[in-house]
Amino acid sequence: MAEEIKPTQDIKSETDVISWQIPEYRGEEKTKLWYAVYSIIGIALLAYAIFTQNFIFAIIIVFAAVLIVIFDGGKTEILEVSISDKGVAVGKEFYSYDQIEDFFIIYQPDEGVKNLYLEFKRFARPTLPANEPSRYSWLFWLVNFARTRFSIPLENMNPVVIRKNLLKYIKENLERTNIPLSEQLTKLFKL
What we know:
The chain is an alpha+beta fold. The chain has helices at residues 32-51, 55-73, 134-144, 159-166, 181-188, and strands at residues 18-23, 78-83, 87-90, 93-96, 100-108, 113-120, 149-153, 171-172. The protein has a domain at 18-25 and 79-188: Roll (PH-domain like), CATH 2.30.29. The protein is built from 5 helices and 8 strands; from the N terminus they run βααβββββαβαβα. The strands form 2 sheets. It has a 4-stranded antiparallel beta sheet. It has a 4-stranded mixed beta sheet with strand order 7-6-5-8, with helices on one face.
């Protein structure tokens, strides 16, 4: 962590639960110029895919465009994040500590970055609530099948308190001191 902060919250015991709310999706604000440029690039890539008869690439381009439109036009839900002695819950998904390899916190106030990153062991699958319809559970499993890292904004939470609590259960990766490249690219391209 770049800067040491004084803890304002204190954890009384291992059974205490730390919780806060985050938006389900946090995207960058896009201008009409952004949509115009990316539409031209998308159409050019789609034409290239059809010209080279690479139909899988064409399907991927169309799928990506649909996802961008859905995420930009949809209303963002608020998710509850909880860290307890049993694991980490984000919305309806719950990850026990035996599924998590390690964690790291990136705190760079000058750049507006204050995130908790959880690195998962291979093929970590979340536990879903018992009242979740079973016909949709396969979708949660599929989405999380290849997930290796999960980024959680800390919002107004004190990173020192979060770190102190997580260190009781999992190890910290002190080598990770920068924002992951995938997240930097997402921010750069405003995706």
